[in-house]
Amino acid sequence: MKAPAFVPEDQEVILIVDDNESLRDSLVEILNSAGIRSVGAGSVRDALRLQAIHLPAATVVDYRLPDGSGIELANQLKELCPGSPVLLLTGYASLDSAIASVGQLDAYLMKPVPPHTFIQAIVNALIRYRLVAENERLVERLQRMTAFQASYDSITGLPNRTFLEMRLTESIAASAEAGNPLALFFIDLHGLEVLSDVFGHQVGDELLRQMGNRLMDLRREGDTVARFGGNEFVVIRQTTDTMDACLFGDRLVELMGLPFEMSGIEHRVRPYVGIVVTNPETPGQSTETLLQNADTAKYLARQKNQAGWELFEIRMRRRVVDRYEIERGLRNGFEGDFSLVYQAVVNIPSGDLVGAEALLRWDRTGHGIQLPGSFLDVAEESGLILPIGKWVLNRALSDLATWRRSGNLPSGFKLWVNVSPHQIAAPEFPELVSGLLSTHGIEPELLGLEILEEALIDAGEAEKVLRDLRGLGLSLNLDDFGAGHSNLSWLQELPITGIKIDRRFVAGLDVVGNIRGPAIVGGLIRLCEALGLAIIGEGVETEAQANVLSSMGCHFAQGYYFGYPMPGAPIALAEHIEKTGKSPAST
Ligand code: C2E
Ligand code: MG
Ligand code: MG
């Protein structure tokens, strides 16, 4: 192996300690002529004096010196300057005792020493020391870097979760001692993953950095701003009271919601902020609990589906725990615990059964039969709605096939199944529907899907799915029309076949003095007629409501007046209608 090239450093001096003047001079000369600066000393005293002046890069010490032992001097020099090698020069006679006492010294050289060997020994010792020193510097740098990485986030350069938790523990203690409340802000930037997916991770990372900078701009002395992970940031802030914290929440939401421009494209994320303010009179709040509470508040802020903050209160935790238990129940229970009930859709004037709507029920262990309102949003959020929705479609089509086989199906009957926004957003949904239709041998004309308006708010993918479904030959109704965002352009642009008038409008039809409600319903019916859309009134509870609807031109309806949702076949529904004799036409 080739020895590393040795280049003497400018100020580097080698100290030669030997009482033999001519030997000393010749050693100094050998080194100087090799370009290595050196100085000579003839005694221990001289050597220590020159050591202090030159701080030599290496020292060569004779074994015997007039005023002391070379070995003792060598050890003394090592102690004074451990980073500088000391070589012992010894004659044959003293070799054994020199070796025995060399200990921590670096090398020994036998007299007489050839010039080449002498230079090489010194160069080797210097190189070894340089390598050791370099290695130590690297290790130290590495340790500093590792310490940084353990506490800081590599993308934003902000403190990371570990650091934050440590700082939060300190801040809780400090604020309790000072008697001041502490505010914790948990920030979730909704939409960041989608941006990263669509535009690449570099854009996502850049956005995170810019968000981090914005937070740092808002930072007051003593605040801690950290990246918690993913698209979440946390701010710890000493505050005066809850109002102060909420005002800061406003500023956070405003600032984080402003658009970003990157490569000429404007991006925007939606901030959800959870806020917790500690009560200095309630000591002992743990770091973990505070973070959990802020997270809970953030979760509820997200629920509102618009940028904003939510302040933690203890009742929230209960709500979150309830949701969690519902999700666990849905996951564990699943198929065996679900069932469908059917509610009749009738022709108002004739009282004929023209269809039925499938409605989901969940027999929740320990809680009895649950209506969809108590678990659907959890199913939506957790994504469980996809397997559940598939189960509903499969069961409804299987029931329909059974009714048809038994000859129980009135002609023109249509089965309506509710589908959730998640299902409508999935591009593979039409394929799933067509697969199930063929599995059960059902013609698409027999099936209608009911879609909530909220599924269409972020139309995009949903619109394509709707077109594909329509292409299969299914009917598509907008459910609860008028209850939500009710965008009239949907009626024009989307491939829907009809609407269901929300029961809140229907309920107002027989209220004395209510003029606007019926006017809206009347207008809606005429609009649908003009657009060639079918219309069903839902939630009809009284004969008067049914009559008003019918007189306005809405001939199909559904509601407790005609029949409650019930398990079983349409024939039973028809019989039920007949028995209760509730169709206005039959009276
Ligand atoms: P929806 O599709 O509008 O269904 C009508 C709801 O109103 C049903 O509630 C029904 O029981 C109730 N209803 C029927 N007639 C009357 C009436 O005369 N008066 C009153 N006050 N209510 C009446 P339910 O079964 O609790 O379902 C609630 C919602 O849950 C449904 O509203 C639908 O949006 C959703 N849903 C039900 N089943 C499913 C399902 O399988 N999948 C999905 N994604 N959603 C479903
Ligand atoms: Mg419905
Ligand atoms: Mg409805």
What is the structure about, briefly put?
The protein has 587 residues and is an alpha/beta fold.
Notes on the structure:
The protein has 587 residues and is α/β, with parallel strands linked by helices. The protein has three domains: 14-144, Response regulator (Rossmann fold); 161-312, Reverse transcriptase/Diguanylate cyclase domain (Alpha-Beta Plaits, 2-Layer Sandwich), CATH 3.30.70; 335-581, EAL domain (TIM Barrel, Alpha-Beta Barrel). The protein has 21 helices and 23 strands. The strands form five sheets. It has an eight-stranded mixed beta barrel with strand order 15-16-18-19-20-21-22-23, surrounded by six helices. The chain starts with 13 loop residues before the first strand and ends in a 7-residue tail after the last helix. The model has no long low-confidence stretch (mean pLDDT 88). It binds ligand C2E and magnesium ion (2 copies). The site of ligand C2E has 23 residues, from β16, α13, β18 and β20.
